[in-house]
Specification:
The protein has 581 residues and is α/β, with parallel strands linked by helices. The protein is built from 19 helices and 12 strands. A 5-stranded mixed sheet has the order 2-4-5-7-6, covered by helices on one side. α4 runs parallel beside α6, α10 packs antiparallel against α13 and α15 runs parallel beside α16. The chain is elongated and about 125 Å long. It starts with a helix and ends with a helix.
């Protein structure tokens, strides 16, 4: 007996355990109906025998014990005995009412045969074991019918009907078994395709993660070099540096869009919930885009800013990302007129932000596919304005991830209006001055260790910190970094997380474990992965803060300033905790 046959028999056994109560009820009803005619003693004996068989089956073949080849054969013989005992009540019919009783016994066998088909649909072995006693009982019923005086014509009719019932039962079982197999094959195919799809998504995410990690290195160098030339160059050199910086920023935006789309597809995108200053965020967004709007001769307006709540709870980073996408598109596709940002608060803390332009508008066909990834309003739009077509798709997914939505309305020649609704409960203003953003910090003289396996990244950090009083030391691997950290004291460590041999988190754990000059030195993680789980892992390893790649000079300096603030006693990295984490 094959393992598949044993699995099918196990499936039938589970069904028999579920339906034991229904079988007992049916036996009780039959015993009550026939007892008044043929005697209660006979029916009590039959009912008692049937009940004892059910009890024995539950004890001899429990679901907690796996079915083996030997126990499967025993179960088949027991099922045949069980079916024989149940079908034997059909022989009572001729004793009660002669030929008419024989006919009623035949009807009882036919109905029970239908139950046999349904109960044993999963296993052909169990079906045959249960059906054989019914076939034998049909023959015995014909013999008994002749014995009580039924004419040969009735015997022939009953025999033909019995053969037809048995034949139809076999045909129904075969069709049902075939349908069950098709269903099982369909489930298996569905599971296979699901696994293939999950594998493809995982492979795509891994590919994008690897490519993004490699791309962040040259982008960081481009941005750092352009910023250095812009600060120290003059005339045409400064203008060229500005052009390079804009191109680098565009590359960074495209890369971030691809990463965000991959995270959304994989279901790994997350949002945070913190208090933030909504009015300041809106003012900063308008200030950021005002120069671009002025360059195109557009008016950039904000309506409702004074009446909207100042402090709300939500994800300011994702809200800023949505507004950037909407305002960028509005300015990009509008040649004359104005771009208006309107903000209002609806009941239940529902914030409504709309970005409306006076551009050419959209056709209904273009509006339908506007939020599909990699889709743009048309080929002409892609050629003229470029882009990946991911901004709106990501923005709507982010809005929905935060419990809101993003919709668009437009008519040809009448501009477009994009409206995002977000649940942003009002919050109390922080008591400390932590919200006051510091654009630049006056850092003291520092000894900084930069750990990165890419020389370009180390040189980029050097350019960003060139104008500061920083003594920079470089390490190209985790092992080299540990040697330097044991030999001399540093004020700060900039640690790449992903390095061959020994990654940044492993280096930090080892640093916190050893009693050396840098056991409590702040370590800033420099990483291309911004997921909360990754950031939490960095902090658990003993890192103080993090900066995302491609490195932004302002964010790096801000992180350095935060790391150099004296920590509270309970915030000093604990070596044992870092090792256990």
């Amino acid at each position: 007996m094959s393992p598949a046959d044993i699995e099918d028999i196990t499936t039938v056994l589970r069904g028999r355990h579920r339906t034991v109560r229904a079988r007992l009820v049916a036996a009780t009803v039959l015993a009550a109906l026939f007892g008044a005619f043929v005697g209660w003693a006979l029916m009590a004996a039959w009912w008692t025998t049937f009940v004892l068989l059910q009890v024995y089956e539950r004890r001899a073949y429990p679901l907690s014990r796996p079915v083996t080849a030997k126990s499967a054969k025993g179960l088949m013989w027991f099922t045949a005995l069980n079916a024989f005992v149940f079908a034997s009540i059909s022989l009572v019919g001729p004793l009660v009412d002669g030929p008419w009783g024989a006919a009623s016994g035949g009807w009882m066998l036919a109905g029970a045969t239908c139950y046999i088909v349904l109960a044993n649909i999963a296993s052909r072995h169990m079906f045959r074991a249960a059906l054989a006693p019914f076939a034998l009982m049909t023959v015995l019923l014909l013999i008994e019918s002749r014995w009580v005086g039924a004419p040969w014509s009735s015997i022939f009719a009953m025999g033909s009907a019995g053969l037809m019932v048995l034949g139809v039962a076999g045909a129904i079982w075969r069709e049902a078994a075939a349908a069950r197999k098709r269903e099982s094959d369909a489930h298996a195919e569905s599971d296979r395709r699901r696994l293939e799809a999950e594998s493809a998504v995982a492979a795509k995410s891994a590919f994008i993660a690897v490519v993004s990690h490699e791309l962040r290195t040259p982008i960081s160098a481009i941005l750092a070099g352009a910023e250095d030339i812009r600060r120290h160059g003059q005339g045409s050199d400064a203008a060229k540096a500005e052009l390079i910086a804009e191109a680098g920023a565009m590359m960074r935006t495209l890369l971030n869009d691809l990463l965000d789309q991959a995270k959304l597809d994989a279901g790994r995108m997350s949002v945070e919930t913190i208090p933030f200053n909504l009015r300041r965020l809106l003012a900063q967004q308008l200030s950021f885009w005002r120069a671009e709007a002025r360059r195109k001769g557009l008016r950039l307006r904000l309506d409702g800013g004074r009446t909207c709540p100042q402090w709300v709870t939500g994800d300011p980073t994702r809200l800023r990302q949505i507004l950037n996408n909407l305002m960028s598109n509005a300015i990009k596709f509008t040649d004359a007129g104005a771009v208006t940002v309107t903000v209002s608060l609806w009941p239940d803390n529902l914030l409504v932000l709309s970005v409306e332009d006076t551009g050419p508008g959209l056709e209904p066909a273009a509006l339908e596919g506007l939020f599909a990834p990699f889709q743009q309003a048309g080929a002409e739009v892609a050629r003229t304005h470029g882009g990946t077509g991911l901004g709106l798709a990501i923005s709507r997914d982010l809005a929905r991830l935060m419990g809101g939505d993003l919709v668009a309305a437009s008519q040809p020649g009448k501009g477009a209006c994009f409206t995002v609704t977000l649940p942003l409960p009002q919050a109390l203003a922080p008591t400390s001055g932590s919200d006051a953003a510091t654009e630049s910090l006056d850092l003291p003289p520092l000894a900084v260790l930069v750990v990165d396996d890419h020389e370009i990244n180390r040189r980029a950090v050097g350019l960003m910190l060139r104008d500061m009083d920083v003594r920079l030391t470089e390490a190209a691997s985790g092992f080299e970094a540990l040697g330097l950290l044991e030999a001399q004291a540093f004020d700060l460590v900039l640690m790449d997380c992903h390095m061959p041999g020994m990654d940044g988190m492993s280096v930090t754990r080892e640093l916190r474990r050893r009693a050396g000059p840098n056991q409590h030195t702040p370590v800033i993680a420099v990483t291309g992965a911004g997921e909360p789980a990754h950031i939490d892992a960095c902090r658990a390893a003993g890192m103080t803060d993090h900066v995302l790649k491609p490195i932004d000079a302002g964010q790096l300096i801000q992180a350095m300033g935060r790391a150099l603030e004296p920590p509270a006693p309970d915030q000093i990295p604990d070596a044992a905790g870092a090792i256990s984490a």
